[in-house]
Specification:
- The protein is mostly beta strands.
- Helix content is 5%, strand content 59%.
- It contains 2 helices and 19 strands.
- It has a 14-stranded antiparallel beta barrel with strand order 2-3-4-5-6-7-8-12-13-15-16-17-18-19.
- The chain is elongated and about 80 Å long.
- It starts with a helix and ends in a 9-residue tail after the last strand.
- The model has no long low-confidence stretch (mean pLDDT 87).
Length: 412
């Protein structure tokens, strides 16, 4: 009963949390917003690599890793984002705290399964372009919402070296935007409000292979692929006249349309070497094709979309995971580096994201559960070409709780 209550309460909390603004980036204006999920905290702390198989942690990027679960795993993770937004002549600070994922992983012999909830993308921006010289229009833009996904994944251990897996995702959410424009010497302005309700299904498939190089060294590899899919977008548009206190003066007719947004295919490959109980070092490359994610309210002539490319290196080190006398030797240290071309091109300038990551895994005494902390420090965008640079610091936190569930007691 307690377990059911905990899971139900966390799922309720996740729905509430994911409904809030998960970003404050002006670049979330484009497409379906800023991509939010980059793996569990353990993966993010290693630059985003997901090449290792683990019996006590859920791999949410490659479903093949689920086959190695030996314990029922309940994982919940969140983050606090602190960013400074800079242009050539101004700067501002923003803060956001969000719940990033919640999942339950279950071992099933040669199979492993997991289900849960996580964000796919997030929209959250407020942009003002106020002209005081009386010769140009003043504009302001505001957007919020995003897309979440509920997933169910399965992994299967073909043999001791090779796993395969598949994950089904139901994507859903709503994005709302307001744009206001006032012309010089005209009393009233124009307000355009848009709401897009999105839904769709897509799949991930993956495989993982490892083999012994020698007695102490193992080669690890990972490959996962997401085929192209569609998001159905039901759009509502309202245009009205407002005065300078934002009160409505007149409403035009409401219009409704339906469009299909294309989620592009994605493939990721990683490889590394190490001793799974002590250390690992690896690299991963992820490439996503060009999508068609522009809706009527966020199409701009100065914007293009290219391939999204992410390059990650990282690893972990645990001095002695089996130590019974030293707590410090059972602590896991993680680190990594990432470089990402987001695929967004504005004013002929590619928007890139570069960051370093650090993390630490603290075991909970007398259990296989652990408490994880992570830091991401990086830069997204640039101040050149009249754009905005984001200098960000993400503080990440997660709990990974492991226990033997669904075991019939021998004594009553």
């Amino acid at each position: 009963m307690i377990r059911k209550f905990i899971i139900g309460a966390c799922l309720f909390l996740s729905v509430v949390s994911f409904a809030q603004d998960g970003t404050s980036s002006p670049y979330s204006f484009y497409g379906i917003g800023e991509a939010k999920f980059n793996g569990t905290l353990e993966s993010r702390s290693m630059g985003g690599i997901s090449i290792s198989k683990d019996s006590t942690h859920v791999n949410l990027l490659n479903p093949a890793g689920l086959a190695d679960l030996k314990w029922t795993n309940f994982t919940i993770g969140g983050s606090s984002n602190h960013a400074t937004l800079k242009s050539n002549d101004a700067s501002a600070k923003t803060n956001r705290t969000t719940l990033d994922y919640i999942t339950l992983g279950i071992p099933l012999g040669k199979f492993g399964a997991a289900f849960g909830l996580m964000p796919l993308s997030s929209v959250g921006y407020r942009i003002n372009d106020i002209n005081t010289n009386g010769t140009q229009n003043s504009r302001s833009y505001n957007g919020w919402g995003g897309v979440n996904k509920v997933f169910l994944g399965f992994g299967y251990k073909v043999n001791s070296n090779f796993n395969v897996g598949v994950k089904a995702n139901y994507n859903f959410g709503q994005i709302k935007t307001n744009s206001v424009e006032f012309a010089p010497n005209i009393q009233n302005g124009t307000l355009e409000s848009n709401a897009a309700t999105l839904s769709g299904i897509n799949y991930d498939v993956g495989m993982m292979y490892n083999t012994k190089i020698n007695e102490k060294l193992t080669f690890f590899s990972s490959l996962y692929y997401t085929p192209e899919s569609n998001l159905r977008s039901n759009n509502t548009r309202n245009v009205s006249t407002i005065n300078n206190t934002s009160q409505t003066v007149d409403n035009l007719d409401e219009s409704k349309t339906t469009t299909d947004l294309k989620l592009p295919q994605k493939i990721a490959f990683g490889a590394g070497i190490g001793d799974s109980k002590k250390w690992l070092f690896g690299a991963e490359v992820a490439i996503q094709a060009v999508g068609e994610l522009t809706n009527s309210y966020n199409s701009k002539s100065n914007v293009e979309y290219g391939k999204r490319q992410k390059y990650s290196i990282g690893g972990y080190y645990t001095p002695d995971s089996g130590s019974y006398v030293s707590y410090g030797k059972r602590i896991t240290f993680r680190g990594g580096f990432k470089y990402e071309k987001t695929g967004l091109i504005i004013n002929s300038t590619s928007i890139n994201d570069v960051g370093v990551t650090l993390g630490i895994g603290l075991p909970i005494t007398a259990s296989l559960s652990n408490f994880n902390l992570g830091i991401e420090y990086g830069k997204k965008g640039t101040t050149s070409a009249n754009l905005i640079q984001e200098n960000y610091l993400n503080l990440n936190l997660s709990f990974s709780l492991n226990d033997k569930w669904f075991v019939r007691s021998k004594f009553r």
